[in-house]
Each structure stands twice: as C-alpha cells, then as structure tokens.
Amino acid sequence: MPGARHYMTVSAPRSPEASLIETALGKHVFVADGSRLFDADADLFGQFEGAMAGGRVGELLDRVGLGGDPYIDDTPLPPQPIHALSLAVAQ
After folding, report:
1. Between vectors from CA 5 to CA 45 and to CA 33, what angle results, nearest 5°?
2. CA separation for the pair 64, 53 (Å, rounded)
3. Contact 17, 57 (CB under 8 A)
4. Of 82, 48, 49, 78, whose CA–CA distance to 63 is shortest?
5. Rg of the chain on CA atoms, in Å
6. Predicted TM-score of the model (pTM)
7. What is the pLDDT along the chain (91 residues), one digit of tens a residue?
8. How far is residue 62's CA from residue 84's CA, in Å, rounded to a whole number?
9. Starting from the edge strand earliest in sequence, which strands make up the sheet with 26-31, in order?
C-alpha cells in the first residue's frame, strides 16, 4: 500500500499555469490565470499532457489562444469612491 509521500507526489501540480481534469462529462483544461476552465478534446488534452511533461505549457497556451497578457497581475486596484460616511460616535 503506498504511503502518504506517494500521494503527495502524484497529487502535486504538474504546472503552475494549467491543470488537466477528467470528469464524467469529459476532459478539461483549467488555466490558473483568471481561473478559466475549458473543455478539451482528446487531441488537445494529449498536447497538454506532453507540454506538461516537457515544461512547455506556456507555449501551448499561446499557440491555442489561451495565453497572452495576464488576467491577474500585481497592479493594485484603484481606490473605490466613497458611497457612505458614518459619523456614529460611541457614548
């Protein structure tokens, strides 16, 4: 029976950019940037498996139109306008 270390190893993410998911509804690619989930046919799913093994996920994302400028970056959000101001004072 495999130990805990085995399960930690096999469940570790293979790529920080994307994850592959197989469900009863089919095969899917989860792209971490923007938390986007896409259906994938067997051919595309296989291409992602190969790209993950070769460390080329970013290239494949760009080639199939899922790459580009990041949806999430380190730019701070602009300040929000004030909608209400409470003048409540504890007595």
Report:
1. 40
2. 18
3. yes
4. 48
5. 21
6. 0.72
7. 678 888 787 777 889 999 999 999 999 999 999 999 999 999 999 999 999 999 999 999 999 999 988 888 889 999 999 888 788 777 6
8. 44
9. 18-23, 26-31, 36-40
